[in-house]
Amino acid sequence: MPRAATFNPFQRDLPVDLHLSDETICARGGWYREFATRPSAPAIYQTTAFDMHGLEQLDAVASGREAGYIYTRDGNPNHDAFAADVAQLEGAEAGVVCASGMGAMTAVLLAHVKSGEQIVAARVLYGRTAQLLNHLQSSFGVGVTYVDANHPDEFRRAITASTRLAIVESISNPLMEVADIPAIVAAIGDVPLLVDSTFATPCLLRPLQHGARLVFHSASKYLNGHGDVMLGVVVGPRDHIRKVRGLAALYGVNSNPFECWLASRGLRTLPLRVQRVSETAGQLAAFLKQQPGVARVYYPGLDEHPSHAVARQLLEGAFGGMLSFDLTGGKPAVAALFRALAESIPFSPTLADARSTLSYPAGTSHKFMTADERREYGIGDGLVRLSVGLEHVTDLERELALALAQLAGY
Question: Is the CB of residue 18 less than 8 Å from the CB of residue 7?
Answer without folding.
Answer: yes
